[in-house]
Every structure is written in structure tokens, then in C-alpha cells.
Design brief:
Number of domains: 1
Largest sheet: 5 strands, parallel
Number of helices: 5
Radius of gyration: 14 Å
Distance between the termini: 40 Å
Helix content: 25-40%
Order of helices and strands: EHEHEEEEHEHEHE
Shape: globular
Structural class: alpha/beta
Length: 148
């Protein structure tokens, strides 16, 4: 069973991809989009994927809202407004891959046909020194990113 399958064999989402694979697809397909589902604080203090080299910008829609990290009740509507084409590839990214997987499943349930989770997210898992950004994900892959 692949990462994007449910126990019944029905695709819950299109599957997991590496940060490098997402970057390659974003560069190659003009319709492909990256949706960053982290919080405002994460975007500001941790950084953002920089899609300028491929002529794009990430779509910023938090899956959870700060403070309290409560579910964003407008998440699906905000993504749908930003990405009206339900057949275009959409890559979801968060810190390490959990929230973005949830987002990919949610948008697939709304009729989006190519929702992918960026496994490892923006920062990846903790390394041996309990730091993120070195053991997987967008940053560790050496992909472009910016910080304010």
C-alpha cells in the first residue's frame, strides 16, 4: 500500500514526494503549485520556499491558526480561491510532512485530483542534535528559501 492509499485501496491523495521531486515538478509544469500550510509565525521566523527561480510564489494558507493551533475553518475555501483548477498538480508542504499530508487528503476529498504531500516538509525531522533543517526536507535538500 503506497503512502497515498487508504486501507480500502482508494487513493486518499496522490502520494508523497521528496522536496527535490516537488521542486522539479514545480519547475517543469506551469500549472503546478506549492501550498505552504504552516503558520504565519513559521513563515516569518523559519522561512519560506523561494519559488522565484521558477517564476512562482508559494500559496500561503495555514491549516491551523495561531494562537492555539486550532483548525483553520476557512482552509479549503482559501485554497480553492487561490487554486481554482482542480486537475492541476498541488504540492502541500509543512514543517515535516504531517499537516501537509492532512491538507492533501482534505483537498483530494474536495475533488482535487493531484494532491501531493512533500515528505520531510520544509525542515525535516530532528537530527542527532535535535535540530531541524539538516536531516531531510526542503532546506536540507539545498533548495531555494528565504527568511524575513
Amino acid at each position: 500500500m503506497s503512502a497515498g492509499q487508504t486501507g480500502g485501496g482508494t487513493a486518499a491523495y496522490a502520494g508523497d514526494v521528496s522536496a527535490q521531486e516537488a521542486w522539479t515538478k514545480l519547475a517543469a509544469d506551469a500549472r503546478a503549485a506549492l501550498v505552504d500550510v504552516r503558520s504565519d509565525a513559521e513563515w516569518t521566523f523559519v522561512g519560506l520556499p523561494d519559488l522565484a527561480p521558477v517564476g512562482k510564489r508559494p500559496v500561503l494558507v495555514p491549516l491551523q491558526v495561531f494562537p492555539g493551533m486550532k483548525p483553520n475553518p476557512n482552509f479549503a475555501a482559501e485554497v480553492a480561491q487561490a487554486l481554482p483548477a482542480k486537475d492541476a498538480p498541488v504540492y502541500f508542504i509543512c514543517r515535516s510532512g504531517g499537516r501537509s499530508r492532512t491538507a492533501a487528503i482534505a483537498l483530494t476529498a474536495l475533488g482535487y485530483t493531484q494532491c501531493f504531500n512533500v515528505a520531510g516538509g520544509f525542515e525535516g525531522d530532528l537530527d542527532g542534535e535535535r535540530h531541524r533543517g539538516r536531516a531531510g526536507g526542503w532546506k536540507a535538500a539545498g533548495l531555494p528559501w528565504v527568511q524575513s
